[in-house]
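[User] I wish I could look at a protein chain and see how it folds. I have put the entry right below:
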Amino acid sequence: MYIDTVDVLNEEIYCDKLRLNQVLLNLLSNSVKYTEPGGSISIRITEEAGADGFAKYVFNVRDTGIGMSPEFVEHIFEPFEREENSTISGIQGTGLGMAITKNIVDLMGGDIEVKSKQGEGSEFTVSFVFRLHEEEEKEIELPALKNSRALVVDKDRNSCESVAHMLTQLGMRAEWVVSEDEVVECVRDAAADKDAYKVYVIDWMMAKMNGIEIARRIRKETGQDALILILTAYDWVDIEEEAREAGVDAFCSKPLFISEIKQCLHHVLCGNGQVVESHEDKLGKLKGGRILLAEDVELNQEIAVEILGDAGFTTEVADNGKIAVEMLEKSEPGYYQLILMDIQMPEMNGYEATRVIRGLDNKELASIPILAMSANAFEEDKQEALKSGMNGHIAKPIDIDSMFATLRSVLGS
């Protein structure tokens, strides 16, 4: 999956964050569902000029999946519209998902379009006009890099163009390559022209070698003069020491916005290589422990387990509320530090499961902290969670910072 941004200069906006996330998650979930292994999915975010105090944001979600016929595309936003396709066994369709997505987009005053071709993939384009955050931020200047030469190395052409455009906006002369084999050649040619690259921005996951190995080769050719940044969508804690030894100056998280790369370069130039704070830096290190996750959707299980694992937690999964109650009853007090409870589950929903737990004879088990995890995030939903005996509410799709902050407040970490 590839994510890139184009001309997103205003990153602070006013919008319904939950509903925007729901729209994008629905579109991406559909792409994942209908794209076979080996295919690709990309999302591009573009900002376009709007009226004073506003801007238009365009979200383009593209995949190389099975695609749709023209006849089906005409009805894709109708409830329960389905299409039979021999590429995937059985009958697959959008059900209510696309109808709900269209309804949310309309309610937010946006537009949604779709292009698709069978056997080649689909492309959804959603656009909204959002009000901009008016508070002016302190401008970061990079005079030391003015008119300097920069090289972007990424296997995805769109990412290369996007990052190179950002560097150009920051006053640099940016070039890009999509192959590791071209890097050393570019470095040597630049040296021969007596116009060496001063900044390298390298993707961590290249095809033939990783970003650290590429950095090591650049340092062998150029010494310590240039700045080398690694772009990654993954946690870099485990590779940070090796990267520093190879000559990497800093890490930046994907997807990349211009404010982040500007801050990244500024901190490196000021001598602070830890440029982009990790969630542990922002929220303090969580103590870890064991969490019981009650969730019936496999994809949501995988996402939550991955996020919690990065924070140092061990997670055990129950497919519904009934199983969660049974797992807790069989455990010793203190075995689980907390329960994350989905609301909409078969056999026993989250509210019912919580009420059963609060009524257990073993008062230590009955008092375990329970947090609701639900896409229903209106105030009445939060109040219902509290009435059933829960300690708090985490909205879906999961906002990692918000989730960790809630965990810290409940666990006292």
Summary: The first strand starts at residue 2 and ends at 6.
